[in-house]
Design brief:
This protein is an alpha/beta fold and 290 residues long. It is 22% helix and 33% strand. Helix 5 links the parallel strand 8 and strand 9.
Length: 290
């Protein structure tokens, strides 16, 4: 797969494209947790390869809560193969081995609160270590992003011809999301705070939905234009509710959470208005199966 990607700033990346492109958008995999539905995850990653999709992961690919000094730790939440003295090393190395076959399709992996928590507690960066191992094994170009950042998709429809860009703002997320609002309020806050985004992508709360808002702008000739902003709230791959019998998730009154993420297709086309040509980029968003 041809995937030219350039790091412009530490959390700003540009991907160059020349035709319509599909993306797999996921977050909150919690890969090393026994409750991670790896079968579903593998089916989505394999499908991304078949569809020649670009994969982005918006934080918390790793869970990493079972370290020696972590107050959140529980022996039942550590996989047997990681229950050893070098717990962190084993998880990082195994995760890199797991993702290596998909390296040609993975563009950016961002940080979530589970990765940043390890940096704060143990002064090591598990995500960067994992990405470094993936790139070493595969001679790949997987990039680490930020807890928040931008991925800009630059389209050139004809060599030396029409160009257009699509700006994807991502933020792993904060807060609990709310059992009723499902973090829609969080997205409205980002809508008010973030300028010039075509897509706003958030994870963290393990909710799964998409909506479209609309903003008013002025073009270079001071004409009023309306621009849609696509919002996606990606779900998770860790099934915590189970049968509702008990545990931290149940005791705090949290509901069952949907698993999976979204397929996003960007479709560029040539548009002519008032004698001027430009590239319009349409968006199709579809929930992953499962």
């Amino acid at each position: 797969m041809i995937k030219p990607i350039t790091r412009i700033q530490r959390n700003v990346h540009v991907i160059e494209l020349s035709e319509e492109q599909e993306f797999l958008k996921i977050s909150d995999v919690h890969w090393d947790n026994p409750k991670c539905n790896r079968e579903l995850l593998i089916s989505h990653l394999d499908e991304a390869k078949r569809r020649n999709a670009i994969i982005t992961i918006n934080g918390d690919f790793l869970c990493l809560m079972q370290g020696k000094f972590d107050p959140r730790g529980s022996k039942k939440d550590v996989r047997p193969e990681h229950n050893k003295g070098n717990y962190l090393d084993l998880v990082i190395e195994d995760a890199a081995e797991f993702l290596a076959p998909y390296a040609d399709h993975i563009a950016v992996i961002g940080y979530g609160n589970h990765e940043t928590n390890i940096i704060k507690r143990l002064e090591t960066d598990p995500l960067q270590r994992m990405v470094d191992i993936i790139n070493y094994k595969t001679k790949g170009n997987v990039q680490t992003g930020g807890y928040g950042g931008w991925v800009v998709y630059k389209f050139e429809l004809y060599k030396g011809g029409l160009r257009g860009s699509y700006k994807n703002k991502y933020f792993h997320g904060s807060g609990g999301g709310g059992p009723v609002t499902k973090n829609t309020i969080g997205h409205q806050r980002l809508d008010a705070m973030i300028g010039d985004a075509d897509m706003i992508e958030v994870g963290h709360t393990h909710d799964l939905w998409t909506m479209t808002t609309c903003v008013e702008t002025l073009d270079h000739s001071y004409n009023t234009k309306l621009r849609n902003v696509t919002h996606i709230q990606t779900g998770c791959y860790k099934e915590e509710y189970e049968d509702g019998n008990g545990g931290w998730h149940i005791e705090r009154g949290a509901p069952p959470k949907p698993l999976g993420g979204f397929w996003v297709k960007l479709i560029p086309s040539r548009v002519k208005e008032e004698g001027k040509q430009y590239v319009r980029i349409d968006t199709e968003v579809t929930k992953t199966r499962g």
